[in-house]
Amino acid sequence: MSPGALLRVQITPFGLLLAGTLAAAAADVWDDRPLRVVQKSDLHFPTILVTEGITAGKVRVVLEVDAAGRLMDALVTGYTRVELAEELQRNLGIFSFTPARQRGVPVPSRVEATFSFAAKGGVISMNPGNAASAHVRGSKVDPMILVVAEQFELDRPLEVVHQVAPQVPRKTEPPAVEPRVHVQFYIDAEGRPRMPAVLRATDEEYAKAAVAALAEWRFAPPRREGRPVHVRAVQEFVF
Known about the structure:
Elements: E1 4-13, E2 36-39, E3 43-44, H1 47-51, E4 56-65, E5 71-79, H2 82-90, E6 95-98, E7 100-102, E8 105-107, E9 109-119, E10 145-146, E11 148-149, E12 160-162, E13 180-187, E14 193-201, H3 204-214, E15 218-219, E16 223-224, E17 227-228, E18 230-238
Parallel strand pairs: 11-18
Antiparallel strand pairs: 1-3, 1-9, 2-6, 4-5, 4-9, 5-10, 7-8, 12-15, 13-14, 13-18, 16-17
């Protein structure tokens, strides 16, 4: 059996809310709270890594959590060893989530979390801030491998292979300005849009329509130097 693993979690908010809850201006900071991650039981540190002298590592994950604290999606964007990423993905059920709050109200959120592993009974217990460069008593930590790319790094431009137009919301009165919605999202290695977050929108109903349509889009699988990667993208919808 693999030894247990100590975990430290560092959360980096994206500053974006999912469609359906647009950011309110001048929020009271005393009522705001970021997403909280609670570990309910141990993970196992892969034995194969210990035999290689590796007793610590990190996995970077983007988490999408709804207003009820349910994990809706998780996308690995980097890791020091793929075995740690696979262990974390297999065992995401050991974590519970306290949703972010805005003005005292639970809201859906998308955040990037860094999970720092350390083997129990090993020689080190990692700090999230220095896990990638630490060398203690001869232990070895591999560099972070990023599996998310920017568009300019891709072998060829993004290509939409299936596109769905958003449904125009029914309004009793025509909008005063041309409805526009900017959505930031990830495209995974299979070409599926993941974790949409509204950057700007003139109207919340139009934002919902844009996100619903985007969920049905498909892209040619992105590649960087011939290898599959995830990629960040922004799409503007004009109604």
